[in-house]
Amino acid sequence: MQKINDVRDRLIVALDVPTVWDAYRLVSTLGDGVTFYKIGYRLAFAGGLDLARQLVAEGKKVFLDLKLHDIGNTVTEGVESLTKLGVTFLTVHAYPQTMRGAVEGRGDAALKLLAVTALTSYDDGDLRDAGYGLAVRDLVRLRAEQARIAGIDGIVCSAAETEIVRDVIGKDMLIVTPGIRPSGSAAGDQKRTLTPAEAIRIGADHLVVGRPIVRAADPRAAAGAVMDEIVAAS
Ligand SMILES: O=C(O)c1cc(=O)[nH]c(=O)n1[C@@H]1O[C@H](COP(=O)(O)O)[C@@H](O)[C@H]1O
C-alpha cells in the first residue's frame, strides 16, 4: 500500500450535489475533518471544473471523476487539458486503448490516473446484460492487470475485490473503493458494498462516500463517524 501521510485523505467525499453553491455549503459544513473531495458528472457539468480549481487553491485535494472513454487520441488530448487543473485523481474507464491514451496525455504531470474496472452498481447479471462474458471478479482482475501494464496509478473497484486487485497490482498502485456503506445505511443502487472498517481492513487505500454523508441529516457527524471507523481500522 502507498504511504498516505494524513489519515483524513483516506476518506473522499463525493460532492454529488446540484450546484456549486450547495458544494461550497457542504465543504464548509464538513470543515477540516474532510480533506479530499470528488467532483463527478453532476457538478462537473454545472461549474464543477472552476470549483475544482478553487478547492485546490484552498488546500483541498480533488478527485475529478469524469470516467473518460473515447478513442485514444481524444482521451490523450482531454487528459492533457485536465493536467492544468491541479487535481489529484482523474478517472478513465479501464479499456486498454483508453488507459494508454490517458497515460500519454498525463505525461510528466503529477495527476494520478485511476482506472474504473467494473462499476459497483453492477453484478454478474448486469455484466451479462452489457454483453460481457466474464463474472465481475474476473473482469476486475483482467482490467487491473491491463491497468498495471498501461502505467495507470490506481484502480477503482468495490472493496470486495481489494484482495484480488492487490494481488495483481502489487503495493505501488492505489486501490480506491466506492460502494462504501456504513452499517445500517441504505445501499441505494450499489450492489457490491462494504463498510468503511471492512474496506480499510482488507487493504483499500481511499474510500469514496457520497449519499451516506451528503444526504445525512447531519453530514458533519456522518463524516466524523466514517472517519472514526477508518482510524480505528487503519
Ligand atoms: O468512479 C467512481 O467514483 C465510482 C465508481 C464505481 O464503480 N462506483 C461508484 O459509485 N462511483 C462513484 O462513487 C460515488 C458513490 O456515491 P454513493 O453511492 O452515494 O456513496 C458516486 O459519485 C459514483 O459516481
Automatic annotation (TrEMBL):
Keyword Lyase carried by entry: yes
Keywords: Decarboxylase, Lyase, Pyrimidine biosynthesis
Enzymatic reactions: orotidine 5'-phosphate + H(+) = UMP + CO2
InterPro entries the record matches: Aldolase_TIM, OMPdecase, OMPdecase_AS, OMPdecase_bac, OMPdeCOase_dom, RibuloseP-bd_barrel
Domain Orotidine 5'-phosphate decarboxylase: 10-226
One Gene Ontology CC term in the entry: cytosol
EC number of the protein: 4.1.1.23
Pfam families to which the protein is assigned, alphabetical: OMPdecase (PF00215)
Pathway it works in: Pyrimidine metabolism; UMP biosynthesis via de novo pathway; UMP from orotate: step 2/2
Ligand binding (substrate): 16, 38, 65-74, 120, 181, 190, 210-211
GO process terms (BP): 'de novo' pyrimidine nucleobase biosynthetic process; 'de novo' UMP biosynthetic process
SMART domains: OMPdecase (SM00934)
SUPFAM superfamilies according to UniProt: Ribulose-phoshate binding barrel
GO molecular function: orotidine-5'-phosphate decarboxylase activity
Record: active site: D65 (for ompdecase activity), K67 (proton donor), K67 (for ompdecase activity), D70 (for ompdecase activity)
Subunit structure: Homodimer.
Function recorded in the entry: Catalyzes the decarboxylation of orotidine 5'-monophosphate (OMP) to uridine 5'-monophosphate (UMP).
Protein family (similarity comment): Belongs to the OMP decarboxylase family. Type 1 subfamily.
UniProt name for this protein: Orotidine 5'-phosphate decarboxylase
Gene source species: Bosea spartocytisi
